[in-house]
Amino acid sequence: MNFLVKEKHLKIVEKVKEFAEQEVKPVIVKFDEEEKFPVDIIRKLGELKVFGMHVPEEYGGMGTDTLSYIMTVEELAKVDSSVAACLTAHNSLGIGPILEFGSEQQKKERLPALCTGENLWAFGLTEKNAGSDALGVETRAKPDGDQYVLNGSKIFITNGYSELTRGLTVLAQTGLYNGKKELSTLLVDKETPGFTGKTMHGKLLWRAVNNAELNFDNCRVPEENLLGKRGQGSKVMLKTLDSGRLSVAAMGLGLAEGAYAMARDYAKKRQQFGKPISHFQVISFKLADMAMKIELAKNTLYNACWLKDQGKEFSKQAAMAKLYSSEIAGEIANEAMQIFGGYGFLKENHIERFFRDQKLLQVGEGTSEILRLVISRKIMKENEKPYES
Ligand SMILES: Cc1cc2nc3c(=O)[nH]c(=O)nc-3n(C[C@H](O)[C@H](O)[C@H](O)COP(=O)(O)OP(=O)(O)OC[C@H]3O[C@@H](n4cnc5c(N)ncnc54)[C@H](O)[C@@H]3O)c2cc1C
């Protein structure tokens, strides 16, 4: 394993760190409170070229490795989950499948615009009756000549209907194959007649993220917008989720690091009984446990990224990284709140936002229960072999 990233890529990570501190931190409480999508922040973030940063230069990206991208997400999540979520949903769920399964023409036509931060692309899997049971999707794309006629709906879609959204990849039934549902993925542009959407409001968390309910009413989608081959929908979805889990893990790690740093600094400053509360062993031991969990999460995640960059199988490690990072993010945010005492409940201290935002990480892109299922299935297949990491 070698977790070194190229000097030029590290510079991007540093710039994003600065951006998060200077451009996001001072204003994000207001966006969270008002449940508003921060269009201008996203546009400005786009100027750092991090949207599509892992896309090869020939398609408009910077061609970074996975680890540099993951470290970028980590830096944003140290400060705010909503801005980080917009980036990860676009890069991993939006661009990811186009890059992996798109035809040369689709990549050339679509990716350069998607690498600017001016145009967001989403991934639509979840429906009212199909959450963890992703294969239960009821949205249909009926072949009709050289088009598909799309009918159905999606829910919770990140970046699904913002001012910057240009469309999404839709997982839909395209027919039956050997008596089983045939699933395929289609690139659906926002301006397609019959495509409507509405931003969801009243969320506990990720309040500055655009999550949308989308409807497709006889949308005519050209056959050339099929992503991958017809019937490859499950494959596209599973591959997309494997990579997506690395970004969710990075969000968990970053959030945990941000919460830990806030709690550590507060514990050193806050005086009770004539000394800083960090001098009480029970508090310093909480911080020690947090630091250890962060270290473990970081190693698990970076290892999964390294495997991906080496072209090795990384699906089990991605699931483990996502599960572990998201769960420690919850534990650390909870302990950090405890260290802040009553002051943690005030919005100006940011920690209460971290305490809310972490919960999504145990639900999105595979709940903790489903991830345990994924990991258990994988390890059962390993049978008699010694443990492989
Ligand atoms: C803020 C936000 C952003 C999102 N962004 C997107 C997006 O961009 N694109 C997209 O397609 N979706 C998105 N989602 C949807 C998300 O992926 C789903 O919410 C998630 O997959 C869980 O599905 P569900 O909410 O229907 O829960 P359910 O599947 O109904 O699960 C409810 C509970 O039952 C448990 N459960 C279900 N099945 C099993 C089982 N077999 N064994 C054990 N336990 C089980 C679950 O673990 C969970 O605890 C988003 C959701 C949110 C809240």
* CATH superfamily heading of the largest domain: Butyryl-CoA Dehydrogenase, subunit A, domain 3
Briefly note the structural class of the backbone.
alpha+beta
Bound molecules: flavin-adenine dinucleotide
Give average pLDDT, whole number.
96
Low-confidence stretches: none
Oligomerization status of the protein chains:
single chain
Total strands: 10
Beta-strand content bin: 15-25%
Task: Tell me roughly what share of residues is in helical segments.
Answer: 40-55%
Strand order of the largest sheet: 1-4-5-8
- Count of alpha and pi helical runs: 11
Can you give a write-up of this model?
α9 (315-340) runs antiparallel to α11 (368-382). The chain is an alpha+beta fold and 389 residues long. It folds into three domains: 7-120, Butyryl-Coa Dehydrogenase, subunit A, domain 1; 121-231, Butyryl-CoA Dehydrogenase, subunit A, domain 2 (Beta Barrel); 235-382, Butyryl-CoA Dehydrogenase, subunit A, domain 3. It has helices spanning 7-24, 28-34, 39-46, 66-79, 81-101, 104-114, 233-269, 281-309, 315-340, 351-361, 368-382; strands at residues 120-124, 140-144, 147-158, 165-177, 180-189, 195-199, 211-222, 226-227, 271-272, 275-276. The mean pLDDT is 96. The chain contains eleven helices and ten strands. The radius of gyration is 21 Å and the shape is globular.
